[in-house]
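Possible regression after last week's pipeline update?

I re-ran a chain I had predicted before the update to compare outputs. Posting the input and the new output here so someone can diff against the archived version. Not blocking, just want to make sure nothing changed silently.
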Amino acid sequence: MTESGSVSATTTREGPFRIIVDGVRCPLLIEGKPLHRFAPGWQPVFMNTTLLPSHSLLLLEHGESGRKTVWFLDEMLNFRGAGLKNLGTDDHAEVMKRLQPLFLITARSALFAASRARPPELRTLNSEAITLCSLLLPIWMQTLEAPRILKGIPAAGLSLSPGPLAENGNTPISVPAARLQLLADMELATDHEHSVPVLAPCSGTALYGTFCVKNDSFIIQRFSDITNGQVFFIGSMKTAAPNSFVPFLFFPAENIIVLCVQDDETSASEIALASLPALLCEAYLSRPEGFSNTMTQSSLLSSMQLGAVSSLGVRLPSLPSEAPEYAGEDWQDTVTEISRIFTSSWSDSPTVAESETEEEGNQE
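New output (post-update):
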């Protein structure tokens, strides 16, 4: 078990499991009694004492499956619950005072912010705290409204918010279906190794994306239009058929995902896409630089092949060299905006959906 600050652990075959805090060996307690062993296959990885002022967090991992779970311990190292859903009302309220603001900041930075700067609240987290937040954040996001999924691009197009920096004050504008289809077509044309320029749906600005997720299920690029602050995602989801992909568009400001094709696997695709916001937030947490994809005009033009954009019949606009800062932005705006978009069901002690990872590692 690794050390976090002045914390480490030791155990013997016969005696109870002990954690060394500031040089003192303290037993890990279950209902006030020393713990002698974990469930088969489970081992402690590290204990963090800095993320929460009220609780210590013990990360457990299953050796064979790789599953992880988080134990919450009080100041006496007494077990209080495995994962958020098993915490009592008082413990849950205390934990969420610290974690919920971090989760809101993460969601805002990953899904809404065009700025490249990583928030200072996240820059101060060490690798252990990031690991713990990545495990707990998806459970918290299950308390929020899932994205609305549209099957196929609507014939009438979509009404989209152009962004907080738009000249018209972020008044929604109508984006035609043809422009949305062009985004999907560009996703299918890419080799998923190099980003190709696309036209921002509201401003028509030529943008390069950043690959923010690449795994066995998804390949996703994030685009931020620094001329108006709009953020959107274009991706592909792998299907059961070999080398088959379903393209989709995600507009966080509207909490809408557009499945760009309709096929027999649409239902399965909808289930997988429901967790897309949590997946993107996890990816953002795991990258120290965040999702940086702003390019200067010169770098955009020098890396673009002749005719790549001119063939689309749209004049390439001028791009500012740096992402502008939001005037008067503070983290209360974060809470207000995300709470408006994701109709939240949390309270002081919200009911959190069950998670497979949280049920593992229970003590013996």
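Follow-up from reviewer: compared with the archived run. The longest helix spans residues 89-111. Marking as no regression found.
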